Every structure is written in structure tokens, then in C-alpha cells.
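Deliverable D2.4 — example input (C-alpha cells):
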């Protein structure tokens, strides 16, 4: 099953967008699935439901960090690599959707916001797969 489909299935189960993206990747990167769901919960709905940075974006940032984040304070190379990939992800997502802010992505939509989130989850997974060669 593709990462896109796994993440969409997770979202359809009732988990938030951040959880759907992060937990889908985290379990294959050595993090326990339940822990991944817990860690990523607060980022859903644009940072705790405040409609700030989109959960699929912050979920992707956590995936990038899980792969490339530093574990030693002096590891400047890992820090720079992580920041570079986060910036690249951000640019690609903005190219497609013109924003990374939940409130802006949902602005003017009259229906259930969850109907739109699926396409943001799909974009996030595709960018991650391309960027990280997964």
C-alpha cells in the first residue's frame, strides 16, 4: 500500500492530519506507531486546532527530523541537513497550495474542512517520498 493511501486511511479512521502523515512514516523509521500518534497529536488542525501551520506540513517536518535530526549538539551537519530539507518541503508545498497555513488553506471553503485535507495529505506524502527518496 502506498504511503498516500496509508495516511489517507489513518485520517479517515479519525486521526488528525498531522498524525496521519507522521505516524505513517514513523512506524517504518523505527518509532512505535502509538508513540508516533501521541507525539503528533498536538500539531493537528494547524497547531492544536488554532489553524496555524498545517498539520500535514508539521507532520512532514517531524518525519524529516526523525530521519535527519541531530542527536548530538555538535552535529552541525545533521542540523543543517534537517533545516535544508524542511525549507525545501515548505517551498514545494507552497508551490502547489500557495500556503502552509491551515486557516489560509481552508479559507472560504463552505463544506467540511476534512474534505479538503485529503489533498493536502496526498501532497505532503508525495513531496516527502520525492525529497527523501522513500
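Example output (designed residues):
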Amino acid at each position: 500500500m502506498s504511503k498516500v493511501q496509508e495516511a489517507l486511511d489513518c485520517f479517515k479512521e479519525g486521526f488528525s492530519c498531522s498524525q496521519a502523515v507522521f505516524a505513517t512514516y514513523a512506524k517504518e523509521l523505527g518509532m512505535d506507531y502509538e508513540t508516533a500518534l501521541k507525539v503528533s497529536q498536538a500539531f493537528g488542525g494547524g497547531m492544536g486546532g488554532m489553524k496555524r501551520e498545517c498539520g500535514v506540513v508539521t507532520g512532514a517536518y517531524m518525519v524529516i527530523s526523525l530521519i535527519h535530526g541531530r542527536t548530538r549538539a555538535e552535529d552541525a551537519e545533521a542540523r543543517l541537513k534537517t533545516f535544508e530539507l524542511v525549507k525545501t518541503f515548505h517551498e514545494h508545498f507552497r508551490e502547489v497550495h500557495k500556503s502552509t497555513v491551515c486557516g489560509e488553506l481552508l479559507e472560504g471553503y463552505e463544506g467540511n474542512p476534512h474534505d479538503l485535507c485529503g489533498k493536502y495529505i496526498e501532497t505532503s506524502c508525495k513531496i516527502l517520498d520525492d525529497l527523501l527518496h522513500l
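Helices lie at 3-13, 17-26, 33-40, 44-47, 55-68, 76-97, 102-106, 114-132.
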